[in-house]
Write a structure and sequence with these properties.
Elements (H helix, E strand, L loop, with lengths): L4 E4 L3 H7 L5 E4 L5 H6 L7 E4 L9 E4 L2 E5 L4 H6 L1 H6 L1 H8 L4 H6 L2 H7 L6 H7 L3 E4 L3 E3 H4 E3 L2 E2 L7 E7 L3 E8 L6 E10 L2 E7 L7 E2 L1 H9 L24 H21 L1
Parallel strand pairs: 1-3, 2-3
Antiparallel strand pairs: 4-5, 5-10, 6-7, 6-10, 8-9, 11-12, 12-13, 13-14
Pfam family, one: FAD_binding_5
InterPro entries: CO_DH_flav_C, CO_DH_flav_C_dom_sf, Diverse_Substr_Oxidored, FAD-bd_PCMH, FAD-bd_PCMH-like_sf, FAD-bd_PCMH_sub1, FAD-bd_PCMH_sub2, Mopterin_DH_FAD-bd
GO molecular function: FAD binding; oxidoreductase activity
Amino acid sequence: MYSVHYHRAISVADAVKLLKSGDAQPLSGGMTLIPAMKTRLAAPSDLVDLSHVQELKGIKVSGKTVTIGAGTTHFEVASDEKLKKACPALVHLASLIGDPAVRHRGTIGGSVANNDPAADYPSALLALGATIVTNKREIAADKFFKGLFETALKDGEIITAVTFTAPAKAGYEKFRNPASRYAIVGVFVAKGKDGVRVAVTGAGDDGVFRSKPIEAALAKSFEASALDGVKVPASSLMSDIHASADYRAHLISVMAKRAVVAANAA
């Protein structure tokens, strides 16, 4: 590590002010930033700790509208009883993230802002048609995720919450890397008032994406059997030491079927 100035923000307004210092970076759970700093992949001059900003915390379910503060931990998402009734698939997703240490420190806002191509939450927000709320504006999930580790966030913007309408049905399944537990392929399916949306994480060359062939098949029949014979193109999928593009294409179909089964059983 190296010398860095640490600041503890007490409010969103305070954090925005502190982020103007040098090459400052916001720090939430630190699950990505701290390891990056240790390996010198990131070298911010200042760290602005958001973990004590109370206005960023908490889960609210009002009718069908769900709002989750950006500073809410994965463990809190996985444990919230009201959220479990409104969207059990998201609770299940959060319970699969990392290990207990990661779930107790990592936050939904930090994960979404980082937009790791194998992270779980981006697929959920994209499939749910969620809105990402910042200190400056509201951004639809379809326009928020721009590519590998890229988002629509601008300098001085902090995610304050995510909000979405609870779906009629939803499910999430992933094929996990046994060491990191990141998704080699993860699929979130959601059926709501605007139809069926399906988002895939861990597989795309450009990060999280919606699967139009699977959406079209499930729009006709929201059953796992509707996906029999549906082919997912491998041309835009990644290949690495964990899985080839062709294998990921196969896994997308398998995980989508399992997610639909889970959604119908909830």
